[in-house]
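Lab notebook page, bench 4
Experiment: in silico fold of construct C2
Operator: M.H.
Input chain length: 219 residues
Purpose: comparison with the prior construct
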Amino acid sequence: MTVEQRLAEVQGRIKASEKSCNRTTGDVQLVAVSKTFGIGDIRPVIAAGQRVFGENRVQESQAKWPLLKQETSGIELHLIGPLQSNKAADAVALFDVIETVDREKIAAALADEMARQGRRLRVYIQVNIGMETQKAGIAPKDTPDFVRYCREDLALDVEGLMCIPPADDHPGPYFALLRKLSIENGLKKLSMGMSGDFETAIQFGATSVRIGSAIFGAR
C-alpha cells in the first residue's frame, strides 16, 4: 500500500468514527506525525493534500521543514515532543503549535520568545494522564492552576490539552479524564489518540489525533 493510500484509509476511518459518534464531518483534525521521516517521504503526503504535521524534535525539524514550508503554503507544524528551554527560540521560529507545555519554565520561555519574535503560537498543556514517572506532563490535579498561570500570568493562547495514555491500559478512561479536565478548565481542544487508539479517542471527544505509522509506515 502506498503512503497516499494509507493516508486516504486513515482519513476514511476518521470520518467513519465521526459519523458513528454523531460528530460533524471534519470536526477532528489529522496531525500526520512525520518524525524520523525525510523530505522525500513527506512530500507525497503533502501532495495528497495533508497540511498539518507533527514532529518530536526541534533540531530534526529544522533540517526539513523550512524547505517544505517554502515549497507549499498553508503548512501547520505542531511540536508534539518534549521541549527544552534552550530550544524555545528555535521552536517559536519554526512551529505553529506547541502541544507539550508541561512546566512553568517552558511556558515562560515560550512566552518570552513569542514576544521577542512577534509570533503568537497556540499551545496545548500536556497532562501526564496516567501519572507515569517516565512521561512528561503535569499531574491532572495541577491542571487548573497551570492553565491559569499560562493564561493569566503569561498571556499564552492555551488552545487545549494533550495526553499520551499508558500503553498497557485501555485508553478510554484516560481520554475521558482529559475531556473532563478540558471542560472544567474551559478548553475546547483535545489532542489525544495515535495510530493504535485514535478511533477510541474520537469517541471520547478528541479534536485532533496524532497519527504516524498508520500513514508513513513502520519506523
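Observations: The radius of gyration is 17 Å. The longest helix spans residues 3-20.
Next step: discuss at group meeting.
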